[in-house]
Amino acid sequence: MRTSYSALTTYQQCPLRFKFQEIDRIRVPKGLEAVFGAMIHNCLKFMFERTPLYPTLDEVIDRFRTIWQNKEITNLNFEEDKAYCEDGISLLKNFYRLNQPWNFNALELESRFEVLVSEQENEEKHVLTGIIDRIDKISNTDIFEIIDYKTSRRMPSQENLDKDLQMSIYHLGISRRWPHIKPENIKLSLYFLKHGEKITTSRSKEDLEKTKDFVIELINEIKKRIENNYDFPPHPSPLCDWCGYRPRCPMWKHLYQSKAKEIPGQKEIEKIIKEYFDLKSQNQKNSKRLTELQSSIYEFMAHENVERVFGENCYLTKTLQERFIYDMKKIKEILEEIGKWDEVAKKKQFSILKATKKKPGA
Ligand code: SF4
């Protein structure tokens, strides 16, 4: 199979989205965030290209303004358009201030790679492709740094970054391109442009072997789904908001249908759903308040050293529960001595059976 890191990530996030995108090859327009991200990437590539001099900050900003004005997205209102444009400019200014291009030794920009992973059992080979935003060689060292730019706000924890599939696959990509580089000499970094923060990880030889196994596992899972009548279920999540396949996804069918035409019973079901959520939220508030009241009552009882408290026409009693812990080994010894163990054990078994016996139809 030939696939890419981003296709595998899409599969992990939602198998149905993977099917739409990679198997059915249905093309949908890119969302606003993706378009914005692609433009920023374009400007950062331009910033590190030396022709023969590095571009100035003004040239980078001009480039962004031009491509932003020529974008194909037309449904933005004036305020949104202005906010995105200003966001892009401030992000690029900030980046330029912290990362003047002449201070880095960028070897490659938007570098394409291919990784070969082979299955030992059947010798089947798979190709993984990807694009690395920037590869630097750190001056006066043997260290190479892979840098991937992110325009998202959410930064992963170090723990998650250390297990991140993208970083592992990029490492495999660079190792295939330049096999002489030792794994410990490869730094893997994500640069979060909105925060001006870079977080870095690395991989050992063992980590990379595990990554290959994991990739093979994922590919086999996909193959099985294809064999199983293209069984790619939807996995709804907050990421649905950025999914271009929402209008054709079964999880969103009702929303789109109800927008497109009058559905019989639509008004009633809306009322029922509203009441359901109102009650649920009321229940949550009630149960929170009940817990607070209970703890105030217990506090009072403890302070006054009483087991029962009286209100107007009502009272509350503290329930005492005695719990025993049996030493089963000792009990067995005693019962065996008097010849009663088998009888008791049978009864115990019977009561367990009774307790676990399912009701018809349950
Ligand atoms: S809308 Fe959500 S559930 Fe449906 S395909 Fe897209 S990501 Fe998957």
UniProtKB/TrEMBL annotation:
One Pfam family assigned to this protein is: PDDEXK_1
Q: Which residues form the PD-(D/E)XK endonuclease-like domain?
A: 3-250
Q: Which Gene3D superfamilies match?
A: 3.90.320.10
Top-rank taxon: Bacteria
Protein name, entry field = PD-(D/E)XK endonuclease-like domain-containing protein
